[in-house]
Amino acid sequence: MADVNRGNRPLSPHISIYRWHIPMLTSILTRITGNALIVTALLVVWWFAAAAAGPESFAVADGFLRSWFGDLVMFFSVLGLWYHTLAGIRHLIWDEVKMLEIDKAELLGQIILIVSVLLTIFTVVVL
């Protein structure tokens, strides 16, 4: 059966009628942090392999990781690790069929965003 109103409706999801939701943002961030942690793991493996290879190799790897860029990468790696861990806990909560209502899911998303930043600051400052 033909839809007579087809030309009058916007395409879905259209930018003028669609808004971002916290659960959508946190889902995307979980995927991004998961992939970014692979890069972090490779950097750590490189550092250990360089330490096993000898002093010259270790000096290069250690110099990179202790540079301002390496510090920045490691800071965001800690943030990604905390965020990804908390997002995993959120998924365990959802697996128990709890906090799936829209308002509770948005609150849980806001909580993991805030707590991951606070835990990152705590980790960097205290440890």
UniProtKB/TrEMBL annotation:
PROSITE patterns: SDH_CYT_2. Belongs to the cytochrome b560 family. The lineage of its organism: Bacteria, Pseudomonadati, Pseudomonadota, Alphaproteobacteria, Rhodobacterales. The chain crosses the membrane at residues 28-48, 68-86, 107-126. Its main location: membrane. Gene3D superfamilies: Fumarate reductase/succinate dehydrogenase, transmembrane subunit (1.20.1300.10). This is Succinate dehydrogenase cytochrome b556 subunit. It comes from the Bacteria. Its cofactor is heme. Part of an enzyme complex containing four subunits: a flavoprotein, an iron-sulfur protein, plus two membrane-anchoring proteins, SdhC and SdhD. The complex can form homotrimers. The keyword Metal-binding applies. It is a multi-pass membrane protein.
